[in-house]
Amino acid sequence: MEQNKIEEKKEKLFGNEKNSDYGKQEYWEERFEEEEEYEWLCKYKDISPYLEPYLKKEDKILIVGCGNSLFSTELYDAGFENVINIDFSEICIEKMKKNNEKRTKMKW
Ligand SMILES: C[S@@+](CC[C@H](N)C(=O)[O-])C[C@H]1O[C@@H](n2cnc3c(N)ncnc32)[C@H](O)[C@@H]1O
């Protein structure tokens, strides 16, 4: 989905959200019921030139609060397959697991 379409959908769905909502598990569960993909910080390709010199292919990489971002997927596809994702939203983890079924070494 294009970023502006995602923004439009987010505005419609979560227009009245507050910063304090971000600490609530039920906020994220509700959000991930609807939302398929959202990138909060940056895309993997934007920081890979700065990150990759410090990584070895066999490094264990923990993604804390992975959400529905493509970051860990793109990290894996760049050859860093020892990726462990955690998130307190069960809905998110179930969806991400399914979307990444073919990435058999990725852990959730
Ligand atoms: C702002 S989003 C960032 C998602 C993703 N990392 C990104 O950069 O696009 C925060 C994520 O952290 C998760 N999260 C928030 N508090 C958490 C907690 N206490 N334990 C585990 N996950 C948490 C939320 O479910 C959500 O997926």
- Helical content (DSSP H or I, runs of 4+): 40-55%
Mean of pLDDT: 92
As a whole number of angstroms, the C-alpha radius of gyration is 15 Å
Strand line-up of the largest beta sheet: 1-2
Calculate the terminal CA-CA distance, rounded to whole Å.
24 Å
Explain the layout of strands and helices.
Elements: H1 3-14, H2 25-34, H3 44-51, E1 61-64, H4 71-77, E2 83-86, H5 90-99
Parallel strand pairs: 1-2
Bound molecules: S-adenosylmethionine.
Explain what the structure shows.
- This protein has 108 residues and is mainly α.
- It has a single domain, classed as Vaccinia Virus protein VP39 (Rossmann fold).
- The protein contains five helices and two strands; from the N terminus they run αααβαβα.
- The protein has helices at residues 3-14, 25-34, 44-51, 71-77, 90-99; strands spanning 61-64, 83-86.
- A two-stranded parallel ribbon has the order 1-2.
- The longest helix is centred in the N-terminal third of the chain and has 12 residues, at 3-14.
- The protein is globular, with a radius of gyration of 15 Å.
- The structure holds S-adenosylmethionine.
- The site of S-adenosylmethionine has 12 residues, from loops.
